[in-house]
């Protein structure tokens, strides 16, 4: 398989039109209009729902080979329950996918990027209720049946850690519940089982003729010890990685069960039966990984605990390789952010950080023999950034949210990424001698989009 280059977005972040053409409300729509009093809601955004052609032009400009985006569950099924689909929503996603295929850009589709239909939250309690697992599977089945002839890469859900921890624990993400710690892990338990059910569904009913791949995006931080020779500091860092990334990765990519660290520490942690462990393990066709500066908000006490937060992508890729038997890895979300109106300094900072991440990816592939097969720059457009609303910008393209036309204006980062894609690697005039390198000739470039963002990941 050739190396893939892409860009991504989330539906709730960029589509806008949150009540247009029969779309139902999501938990984030309600959360924004209650908890974010005085802030612009998701109805402002980049208006991708009505300005699809401008998004497509931005993709053409970059020259990507895949686009990662999410489907708004409630735009297809306003109540979340699968019945007759909302025709306008169905038309939009068919048009988007057809337009990508026409341009020879692979669609990479996320089924759930945090925008749970509000009815499912109000009627069932959302992901606290196991009943939502089957409802999610029904929704996934419809998407596989409807779009699977053109979609070869599927993501079941984006960063479930954030859904559980910040949606049902800290309350800084929708649905905004500040629940008990037991609820957080119960929600995580249901999310894992929902993912596994959808993976098996696709494998059994659709893969034989559609030939696609299915995974789940997991996000994480990277923690390094204060003292590299201190065994206790090292142990604490390992425990931190297990509590965040291992919480979801070990059941799916490991033995089907939670890390021993979690089981020993949390007496109330839900347990999987032996049949469930066998059912869950191996339910991902590649390791989709989200990593960036705002992917995890650790406590300020880290140094006192013998730990330091680091953005060393190479090290965390090596950790994944060692922990989970050298999986094939897609860097499914990676990027930088600036303030609302980016200055020359912050634009330069983004470029340097992106250069660093790309080169680290290249180094990990060449020197560490890590099987990274694709890279997704996040994100295509400025949009609604979850709890940060419109106070930060992550797009390669600038959008004036208050303008009528909402033109997509390429930032220096877009020009930079475009050149990397065209050169298929790093170019001498913009690199130090040690950064002069080129990816293989069949390396592909793309972009991604998602429906919604949460706390420990985007």
Automatic annotation (TrEMBL):
Signal peptide: none annotated. InterPro entries: GH, Glyco_hydro_1. GO terms for biological process: carbohydrate metabolic process. It comes from the Eukaryota. Pfam families: Glyco_hydro_1. Transmembrane segments: none annotated. GO terms for molecular function: hydrolase activity, hydrolyzing O-glycosyl compounds. Belongs to the glycosyl hydrolase 1 family. This is Klotho beta. The lineage of its organism: Eukaryota, Metazoa, Chordata, Craniata, Vertebrata.
């Amino acid at each position: 398989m050739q190396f893939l280059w892409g860009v991504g977005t989330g539906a709730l972040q960029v589509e806008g039109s949150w009540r247009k053409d029969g779309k139902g409300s999501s938990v984030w729509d309600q959360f924004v209009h209650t908890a974010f009093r005085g802030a612009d809601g998701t109805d402002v955004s980049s208006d991708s729902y009505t300005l699809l052609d401008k998004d497509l032009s931005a993709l053409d400009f970059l020259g990507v080979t895949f686009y990662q985006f999410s489907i708004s569950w409630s735009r297809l099924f306003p109540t979340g329950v699968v019945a007759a689909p909302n025709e306008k929503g169905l038309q939009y996603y068919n048009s988007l996918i057809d337009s990508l295929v026409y341009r020879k850009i692979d669609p990479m589709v996320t089924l759930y990027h945090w925008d749970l239909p509000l009815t499912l939250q109000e009627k069932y309690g959302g992901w606290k209720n196991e009943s939502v697992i089957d409802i999610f599977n029904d929704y996934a089945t419809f998407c596989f049946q409807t779009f699977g002839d053109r979609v070869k890469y599927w993501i079941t859900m984006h960063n479930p850690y954030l859904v559980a921890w910040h949606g049902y624990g800290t309350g800084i993400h929708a649905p905004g519940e500040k629940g008990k710690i037991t609820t957080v892990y119960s929600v995580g338990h249901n999310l894992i089982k929902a993912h596994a059910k959808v993976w098996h569904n696709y494998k059994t009913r659709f893969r034989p003729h559609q030939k696609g791949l299915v995974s789940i995006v997991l996000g994480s931080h990277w923690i390094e010890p204060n003292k590299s020779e201190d065994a206790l500091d090292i142990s604490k860092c390992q425990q931190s990685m297990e509590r965040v990334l291992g919480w979801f990765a070990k059941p799916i990519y490991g033995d089907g069960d939670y890390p021993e660290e979690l089981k020993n520490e949390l007496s109330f942690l839900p347990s999987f039966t032996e049949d469930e462990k066998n059912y869950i393990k191996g339910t991902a066709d590649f390791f989709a990984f989200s990593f960036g500066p705002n992917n995890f908000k650790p406590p300020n006490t880290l140094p006192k605990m013998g730990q330091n937060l680091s953005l060393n992508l190479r090290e965390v890729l090596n950790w994944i390789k060692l922990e989970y038997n050298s999986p094939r890895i897609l860097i499914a979300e990676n990027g930088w952010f600036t303030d609302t109106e980016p200055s020359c300094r912050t634009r330069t900072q983004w470029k340097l950080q992106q250069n660093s991440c790309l080169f680290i990816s290249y180094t990990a592939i060449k020197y560490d023999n890590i099987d990274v097969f694709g890279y997704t720059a996040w994100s295509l457009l400025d949009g609604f950034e979850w709890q940060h609303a419109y106070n930060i910008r992550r797009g390669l393209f600038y959008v004036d949210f208050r303008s009528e036309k909402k033109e997509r204006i390429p930032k220096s980062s877009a020009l930079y990424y475009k050149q990397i894609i065209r050169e298929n690697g790093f170019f001498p005039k913009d690199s130090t001698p040690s950064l002069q390198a080129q990816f293989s000739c069949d390396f592909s470039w793309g972009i991604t989009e998602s429906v919604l963002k949460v706390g420990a990941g985007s």
